[in-house]
Specification:
This protein is mostly helical and 146 residues long. The protein contains 2 helices and 3 strands, in the order ααβββ. The radius of gyration is 30 Å and the shape is elongated. Its main location: membrane.
């Protein structure tokens, strides 16, 4: 009797693949990696949002300084940051726009706060952070120009 050549390949095909134990070990390793890397990754996202807010506040501060050089004063609280994009009616020496794009929201989707005169300088420019409330710690801390 001759050996059937199709039979050994059929046996190999049945035994090819992963066992349940091997799959469970891989899933445990993936779970451990996700548990270790995930929190570190998401903490970096909060730090980057704070850095973006600080960079935008610095850019607004420079634009406000340029506005003051042209107009002779900072915009009032009522005029707000929008006066960097469109001339207020009572400012004949306005030479803007002072920003390339419209005034964005902060990284948490809320408007930046602007006060003139400020409590900490000629003007106060700040974001309330991720919680949208004054104060806070960590990612919820306020980001300001002072």
């Amino acid at each position: 009797m001759q050996p059937n050549p199709s039979r050994p390949s059929a046996i190999r095909r049945i035994h090819a693949g992963f066992t349940l134990l091997e799959l469970l070990v891989v899933m445990v390793i993936i779970g451990l990696l996700a548990g270790y890397v995930g929190p570190r990754f998401f903490s970096q996202i909060g730090k980057s949002e704070t850095k973006v807010a600080q960079a935008q506040i610095d850019a607004f501060g420079k634009a406000l300084d340029q506005y003051r050089l042209d107009v002779g004063r900072y915009p009032t609280t009522e005029q707000g940051l929008q006066s960097l994009m469109a001339a207020p009616t009572d400012t004949p020496r306005w030479a803007g726009p002072y920003l390339k794009k419209a005034v964005p929201l902060d990284p948490w989707g809320k408007p930046y706060q602007y006060r003139q005169p400020g409590e900490h300088g000629e003007f106060d420019l700040f974001s309330f952070g991720s919680d949208g409330q004054p104060g806070g710690e960590g990612g919820a801390a306020d980001v300001s120009n002072w």
